[in-house]
């Protein structure tokens, strides 16, 4: 399948999950995530403001704040398809008028340098066991995570139904270091060259 077909299939799989199933899976992922040593030692964490079809990050943000971590969220710049990262003191600083209708930090929130991020929690439509991620097509996260200034750990949050045997990728797709689902944590070798299976 090409990326368009993969995205359609991923959306169909997620749509077949009930609200209760997504909520239960998100809760399990929110607990399992903290088994990663990279999360335990993180000081600055990049989260995303989740929409209904994504793994919820609300409980994760609460736990990260309880642990004294700095919470950062992206603000999208549609004209350049880039992201600016902002520190937020609370989720109330996320407004609902961001790009694509996704809550974003207010522009008055302090800007955080990409090199300061220890862990990025990344959404998406699909993943495979080669560390590949299928995004929504705009490339915001790929540009961010392939930036030469990036030094952190890249962790995808996905429902188990979003796993694919093989994803179509290219050099502009940023690989992941780990994926957390409601069933397991899958770690990838961050040092090896990422490529799709033959």
General description of the model:
Helix content is 23%, strand content 21%. With 198 residues, the protein is of the alpha/beta class. The protein has a single domain, classed as 3-Layer(aba) Sandwich (Rossmann fold), CATH 3.40.50. The chain has a 7-stranded mixed beta sheet with strand order 3-2-1-6-9-10-11. A two-stranded antiparallel ribbon has the order 4-5. Strands 7-8 form a two-stranded antiparallel ribbon. The radius of gyration is 16 Å and the shape is globular. The model is unreliable at 190-198 (pLDDT under 50).
CATH topology: Rossmann fold
CATH architecture: 3-Layer(aba) Sandwich
How many strands appear in the DSSP assignment? 11
**Helix-strand sequence:** HHHEHEEEEEEEHEEE
Helix content: 10-25%
- Top-tier CATH class: Alpha Beta
Number of distinct helices: 5
What distance separates the N and C termini? Answer: 14 Å
Q: Quick one: biggest sheet?
A: 7 strands, mixed
- Major sheet: order of its strands? 3-2-1-6-9-10-11
Instruction: Return the structural class.
Output: alpha/beta
Integer tally of domains: 1
Strand fraction equals 15-25%
* Global Rg: 16 Å
Mean pLDDT level: 91
User: Looking at this structure, what is the CATH superfamily?
Assistant: NagB/RpiA/CoA transferase-like
The rough form would be described as globular
Low-confidence runs of at least 5 consecutive residues: 190-198
